[in-house]
Specification:
Radius of gyration: 19 Å
Order of helices and strands: HEEHHHHHH
Strand content: under 5%
Number of helices: 7
Length: about 220
Amino acid sequence: MRPAITITIIAVIMMLIASAISWQKLPNDVRVPVHWNIAGKADRYGSKFQGLMLMPLFTIFLAVCMVVVPLIDPHYRHIKSSMKAYNIILSAIALLMTFLHFLILMATFGQPIDIMKNVCLAIGLLFILIGNYTPKIRSNYFLGIRTPWTLSSELSWHKTHCFAGRLFILLGALIGLGGLTLPGIAVFVILLVGVIGLLLSVTIYSYVIWQKDPEKRKV
């Protein structure tokens, strides 16, 4: 757990330093872009505090969850045995928050950046990374594909996470490539349909495998 916490702390410090520098340079009544439409145009703005502190505060909340929640998980020993995957996935999420924070700052200062392309590439890479390490996560109540059937069958948990890993990699590649070559609406459709399809697929798959497991627990 320590590497993920360390990387998260470093990420938060970087964001806070960037926010502090930006705070001094921006007027108090500045409107900071906090949301973009599928065409990559800012369509919602927040206050100076919201724009400069949203990502750091969220990442701090994430760090607290990373420390507290696994300790009260009944399957904490499984988290300990999955610590490499745990550290890499949660560190990647913290770095994604940092990347998004700097995109917001660049947009606030009027830098010419393609928000849609950058976000799609970042999400695509995150999904590919998650897909590579999802099969290495052992059953727990905090991280992974937690359906009633994966939580009551070690066989369903393992096979579902191997299946989900391949889907995450495929979806991540489609999102990343789509961000480079397709218009925003097309990438949004890929992301929306892909995530819904992935969730439905792994849920159904976890149930099918659970039914075949002679050692399953009834739910």
